[in-house]
């Protein structure tokens, strides 16, 4: 992914994790978590904005982006929650500010509520957090992953491009779309794409959904007002479950808010994070 380098490596229980630290300053550290089928690349603009006054940590989950992709790999939300907890310890970050998108939201919530990861504050951006989730396409692929893995490369590429494109409301720049699709191409990438869908299971969010009322740190929920993957009604439902949460809707943005409205999202996050230190 040209122009986006993750030069550091961490050996986790689920495979090698690639990560990087951006920014300087003496502000409180922030960690950015991506969702599926994306990678830390979607945070590039926001990360650089946040990094003007604080260190920013970005990482690709095992099975995604530049991190390890391997046969038989456990890339479930359960595994990712444990890996994130491991990674925070590796970074020696006791109470970072955490910003998490999509599946990354579920990962950060599981790490906090089940594994004792402590955050100074939590910002959730269009997170996978409430039942029911999973589009008809997502369920079809999950139930038939071995069949989809056998698709000819050209058909697989077309499928992934169409799927990723649908996460944006105004549409993605062709070069950006190429970068988002690139990790899922080739033998290892194609298998990894269907592996992460096959291992997606709502029970991993069911295990924590009833505990959102226990979140006792400052929290922000940001949501693309035009999200077709997870309807904006879920934003209001989630906000009603987290004590003292702030809800911000981003007009004109779909599920992939970082690409659709990076300036607006960065502004909302900067305001929230600077209030926390």
Automatic annotation (TrEMBL):
<feature type="domain" description="AB hydrolase-1">
    <location>
        <begin position="29"/>
        <end position="262"/>
    </location>
</feature>
<dbReference type="InterPro" id="IPR050228">
    <property type="entry name" value="Carboxylesterase_BioH"/>
</dbReference>
<keyword id="KW-0378">Hydrolase</keyword>
<dbReference type="InterPro" id="IPR029058">
    <property type="entry name" value="AB_hydrolase_fold"/>
</dbReference>
<dbReference type="InterPro" id="IPR000073">
    <property type="entry name" value="AB_hydrolase_1"/>
</dbReference>
<dbReference type="GO" id="GO:0016787">
    <property type="term" value="F:hydrolase activity"/>
</dbReference>
<dbReference type="Pfam" id="PF00561">
    <property type="entry name" value="Abhydrolase_1"/>
</dbReference>
<protein>
    <submittedName>
        <fullName>Alpha/beta fold hydrolase</fullName>
    </submittedName>
</protein>
């Amino acid at each position: 992914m040209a122009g986006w380098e993750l030069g550091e490596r961490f050996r986790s229980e689920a495979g090698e994790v690639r990560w990087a630290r951006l920014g300087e300053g003496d502000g409180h550290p922030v960690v950015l978590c991506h969702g599926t089928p994306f990678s830390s690349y979607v945070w590039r603009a926001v990360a650089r904005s946040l990094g003007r006054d604080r260190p920013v940590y970005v990482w690709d989950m095992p099975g995604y982006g530049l991190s390890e992709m391997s046969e038989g790999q456990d890339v479930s939300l359960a595994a990712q929650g444990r890996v994130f907890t491991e990674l925070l310890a590796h970074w020696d970050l006791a109470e970072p500010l955490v910003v998490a998108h999509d599946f990354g939201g579920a990962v950060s919530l599981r790490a906090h509520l089940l594994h004792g990861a402590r955050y100074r504050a939590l910002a959730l951006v269009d997170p996978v957090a409430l039942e029911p989730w999973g589009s008809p396409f997502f369920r079809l692929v999950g139930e038939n992953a071995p069949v989809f893995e056998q698709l000819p490369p050209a058909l697989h590429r077309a499928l992934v491009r169409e799927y990723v494109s649908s996460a944006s409301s105004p549409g993605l720049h062709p070069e950006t779309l190429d970068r988002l699709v690139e990790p899922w191409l080739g033998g290892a990438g194609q298998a990894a794409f269907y592996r992460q869908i096959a291992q997606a299971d709502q029970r991993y969010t069911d295990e924590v959904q009833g505990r959102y009322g226990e979140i006792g740190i400052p929290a922000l929920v940001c949501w693309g007002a035009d999200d077709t993957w997870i309807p904006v009604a879920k934003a209001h439902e989630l906000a009603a479950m987290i004590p003292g949460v702030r809800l911000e809707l981003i007009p004109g943005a779909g599920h992939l808010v970082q690409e659709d409205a990076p300036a607006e999202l960065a502004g909302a996050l900067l305001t929230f994070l600077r209030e926390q230190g």
